[in-house]
# Entry
Amino acid sequence: MAVTFKGGIHPPEHKELSKDKSIEKLPLPKSVLIPLVQHIGAPCKPLVKVREEVKVGQMIAEMGGFVSSPIFSSISGVIKKISDVEVASGKLVTCVEIESDGLDEWINDPLNRQLEEIEAKEIVEIIREAGIVGMGGAGFPTHVKYTLPNDVKVDTILLNGAECEPYLTCDHRLIVEEGEKVIYGLRAMMKAVNVKKGIIAIENNKPDAIKNMEKLTKDYDDIEVAILKTKYPQGGEKQLIDAVLKREVPSGKLPMHVGVIVNNIHTAYSVAEAVRTGLPSVERVITVSGQGIHTPKNLMVRYGTSVGDIIEYCDGIKENVVKIISGAPMTGYAQYKLDFPIDKRSSGIIALTDNEVDTTPESACIRCSRCLDVCPINLVPSKLDQLGRLNEIEKAIEYDVMDCIECSSCAYICPAHRHLVQSIVSAKNAARALLND
Amino acid sequence: MEFLVTHSPHFRTRQTTRGVMTDVIIALAPVSFAAIAYFGMRALVLMLTSMLVAMLTESFLLNRRNGLGVVFKKIYGDGSAAVTGLILAHIVSPLLPLWMMALGSFVAIFLGKYAFGGIGQNTFNPALVGRAVLVASFPVQMTQWLHPLDAVVGATPLATMTSEYMPMFLGMIGGAIGETSALAILIGAVYLLFRKHITLHIPLSYLGTVAILSFIFGVDPIYSLIAGGLMYGAIFMATDMTTSPISRRGQVIFGIGCGLITALIRQFGALNEGVMFAILLMNSTTPLIDRYIKPRLFGGAK
# Structure
């Protein structure tokens, strides 16, 4: 029986474009542009200078605080430039440009360590030193999740394989092709915090992934596979915990407060690679898809690779492309140009065509209640939209604006096509500033 | 190449306000056809007049600055005025003179809707505002009912209290144009439910409350449900999105309130029919209900 949560929507999935495409390695880029913020938290401090030579896996920027994550060179070559560049999120971020020497020389040789050889307390350190962050899109530094306060007890690690966003298939491919590594990563994370239960949760639109995981976990008594109903935003961590474990994360609290740590499939894969090889994270799988891409693919790309190069490798975009999304259609960022770099959080590049992009102008709210029905947090989105536009921030706080998970379900379903997320997020930002005062 | 930049989400529903309103008109079609079958061309002309005046009034108010050409070109608009016009025609006497119909329709849009700021802003159901004004202004014309098929002028069954279920259920009784056939109304309800434009919260709590109170008052509950404008009101008017509470829990309270007032007016009031005042009164409580009844926050206190 597939489990689920209350609310949510069913956007078109379009996974068929890339779900059966094996992960390909993108040829080494001639240069990379590596942002020094690829996570939630303090920006990193650069450790390199212009004209300096670097190798793959060499740390080029160190953590700017505890909630931060170091950054490594993803190719070998020479530092060309360190400057502020506009990245996918639209923010100006200090970036390091590296020109490849074409040699792909690593700083160390990879090891092949078994999990049994490594002490539990080493694991969190390896995760931190490898620069691993949540790769589902949020980019929260993983080592922070595994540094638990003394009064918190965690009993379950939940791997998030919902991949509920339309078009994305990178987690799906990792489960199918690199299932052993995903399980290795999960076991490493369980060992790190001495947890005896691991669950891999997958939506039922990926039967081959479920089958592979059920086969591979047969020999592990402490790992099980949970089947989720296909619904957006099933991959939201609160919704995932609710569906799989029937636990409700209290407002303003974290999953660990109900005894759970949630990690994305790709994060587990990257943890496995770091623990096994002893090398830092320099690449990830992204899905390049959309009706507007000539040849949709799942690609293993080095961080800092230009999206323009990636799209070119996928035979370019079609004439009728009107939107380029960094991330995915429900929560991603629309781009006005193609020369922005991939980072740890980039799960997809989606080219949307004119027949799937909606440009209906917004009209007045008719109070149809649909946004309330789909809101997984049970907010009153139409009211928050109104308060956000009126800049009534105290009232918005009263209406629990801070609990919004920004899943965009309300704006998706709205027949008046109101820009609910835009006004709610701006109210949320203003509310955060007000609450911090 | 140039790309469009907007905030997420980048996928959106194809549904529009106009689509919702058109669906309501489709849901009202069985009622409209039953009306024509029972009351003849008279019903058709009244419905068309009411819709046309409502649409013209709305389009004029919205588009007058762009010239009369635009007023006629965009006459259907988002479809909401057509819905109001059609509903108003359904809840008047089939003997109503055309000019009164037109006046009622104009009042519904002008006073019931635009005085409050237009679509989504009105406190009261506009069609019921139109009907209230007509009842107050032309009490005689608004309460003479035509017996369908044999075209004999008579009183509404709620006034005479003769009851036989089947003719009432099918609509072969005197009454307002669209209120007589419970069957046609229920077909429309199924369509609205199927298209997810309404939920059962308001109709069930409304009808359930009336049935229970009728039983307590010693009136046949089934008769109470299919007599008068109750079924039509509970399904097509109390469920009006703009004038009913936005939360599902609030809608149940709203429905119970409508039922309570309807039953009390029918039992103790001087009027034969309580549906109109019940819904209008409860409309006025909608902002209050919305203020205090919110859905339970996920992760909030239970």
